[in-house]
Amino acid sequence: MISGTKSLRFGRVSMPNQIYHVTTVTKDRHQYLLNFELSRCLIKSIHSSPNVETLAYVVMPDHVHWLLKLQSSNVSLSKTLSYVKTRSAGFAFKNFGIKGLWQKGFHDHAVRGEEDLIKIARYIVANPVRAGLVKSVRDYSHWDAVWI
Description:
The protein is an alpha+beta fold and 148 residues long. The chain has helices at 4-9, 36-47, 77-96, 117-125, 127-130; strands at 19-25, 52-59, 63-70, 107-110, 143-145. The protein is 34% helix and 20% strand. Strand 2 (52-59) and strand 3 form a beta hairpin.
């Protein structure tokens, strides 16, 4: 039987034109992403990810939710997350001396055709409100969605 983090990756398939809701967390859930500059670097990394269309995201103090569409068979979820994590971790180390910004792995959900993308996007961007960080998403700087 497969256990632990490896079981999360077992059977993971990345498909072009598939939409995924991905969540990844900081090492030991430390709130590194309260740092404004680091959060903005992470957002730049998300937006510059090759062969990916970003539909929605929110950067929380200790994790990220990202709704994305893979646009090519040359890209995978693992490569995409590795790209974003590597760029932001390099920035964190160079500018703030943070070693090991990210926890290994990530959680993904392949969005089915019948699921409501706008509802998922609203769930993602409303995270800061549900967490009590702000009263309105308009008061939070680290989110975006193509529909909202």
